[in-house]
Amino acid sequence: MKDLVFEEIEKNAPKEEPARQLYFIEALRSFVEMKKGEGYEAKAMVSVIGCQMSAKDGEKLQGILEEAGYQSTESEEEADVILFTTCTVRENANQKLYGRIGQLKHLYKKNKDMVIGITGCMMQEKDEVETIQKKYPYVHLIFGTHNIYKLAELLLEALISKERKVETWEDTNLIVENLPSKRKYPFRASVNISFGCNNFCTYCIVPYVRGREKSRDSREIVKECEALVRDGVKEIMLLGQNVNSYGLDREEELSFPELLRAVAKIPGLRRIRFMTPNPKDFSEELLSVIQEYENICNHIHLPLQSGSTNILKRMNRHYTKESYLSLLRKIKERLPELGLTTDIIVGFPGETEEDFQDTLDVVREAQFDSAFTFQYSKRSGTPAAKWDAVDEKIVSERFQRLLDTVRESSKEREGKYLGKVMEVLVEERNTENNMLTGRLENNILVHFEGGERLLGEIVPVKLEKSMGFYYYGSVV
Ligand code: 5AD
Ligand code: SF4
């Protein structure tokens, strides 16, 4: 085994994908089997930092590792391979990664066979890759968002050569289908419908780290969803940076509402969600499809970002305070039972008190069920990074006022479903109160007593106590 040379193995590899990666998964499997003979335990851990897109990448890595003979573990101490999928949308996501890999130094000292690998959005930034190469010599594998599917090939090379392997790509037109993926929950899955983003909001790093928008072939998407349903999946989340522009980059492709309809028609699929629609191109047709199909969840996540027309213009969002509000009114008229959530940024460069008041106005009128609120974080390379920042103290003070207003405004909706019996998809057992936790169609959480056999099932639950953003109930 000592004489194994990666180049020899590579010589026989097919050039085309996914055949090439299937070949490398097999090669990695043989290598791992051989190493097991020497006492290698082949345990792997995938750690996700970031959004659903990053979590989905984590599932792909896990799928490849398991196919190659690795056993999953949640313990860093046990792991022979530790992979991170990273996020760089705000500075604190980067800090989180550095904290985590700093802690791994002592484990690496004990187990020099360990491979620590990092992929994801943060690895698309040259400066971050350089920092890791300089400061963390025990990180042996670095790859990006565009070549994540190459894990088996890259890991095998790192394992055989015992040298650091760094491979990141600026962008790609390639979409590699039909590689393994391991779901975190057996009953729930997310499915990529597109990759990348063409919107270039001026605060956002995503177009730079995820590249130009590329839609998947709708036939592949539907095929994947059908296979998931056959495999017991009850809820599917369709994922794209901006789902509304799905298909526009392909010839004769379905539009997003048409794709949603095609997925909704799959027999046995109980729930469909999607993330994220941009308010700028939210169509009437999309509303009609949501209304038409029972299994499309009554929940829309509609990022506001700012309620000020002036700031929205500087953010390059292509909608105004008034057009966002009129879209909301239309949505609520057509779908009165809808769960509505949003993202809001405070302290974007140039934001005045008057601009901020516009954001509070929208929050008061919209009465979001919940809002993910962020302080603006400067991302180098984006246009807004060159603009004058709002004073930190003012930002944190506005942030607090925003939180208070979100809480206040959602009060009116609190307890809206009290006493009703609603369907809950049971997700897990809550370790704090030992109760089962599940989600209503509108994304609101419900805790209730119940046995293990309910996990992954959709059950009717009576909502008995409102706790603001969640309920307590009991199975009927
Ligand atoms: N600063 C703060 N929040 C940001 N987001 C994206 N970029 C930034 C940034 N530079 C938020 C947006 C987006 C969510 C995923 O993260 O609200 O919708
Ligand atoms: Fe997700 Fe964006 Fe963070 Fe990447 S940078 S993990 S796409 S939120």
Question: What are the salient characteristics of this protein?
Answer:
476 residues; alpha/beta; Rossmann fold; pyruvate-formate lyase- activating enzyme; OB fold (Dihydrolipoamide Acetyltransferase, E2P); 3 domains; six-stranded parallel beta sheet; five-stranded mixed β-barrel; binds 5'-deoxyadenosine; binds iron/sulfur cluster
Poorly predicted sequence stretches spanning 5 or more consecutive residues:
none
Coarse structural class:
alpha/beta
Bound molecules: 5'-deoxyadenosine, iron/sulfur cluster
Give the count of helical stretches: 15
Large-scale geometry: globular
End-to-end separation:
60 Å
Strand order of the largest sheet: 2-1-3-4-5-6
CATH class of the largest domain: Alpha Beta
Helix content: 25-40%
Q: Would you identify the CATH H-level superfamily of the largest domain?
A: tm_1862 like domain
Catalytic activity: N(6)-dimethylallyladenosine(37) in tRNA + (sulfur carrier)-SH + AH2 + 2 S-adenosyl-L-methionine = 2-methylsulfanyl-N(6)-dimethylallyladenosine(37) in tRNA + (sulfur carrier)-H + 5'-deoxyadenosine + L-methionine + A + S-adenosyl-L-homocysteine + 2 H(+)
Subunit structure: Monomer.
Domain MTTase N-terminal: 42-160
Pfam families: Radical_SAM (PF04055), TRAM (PF01938), UPF0004 (PF00919)
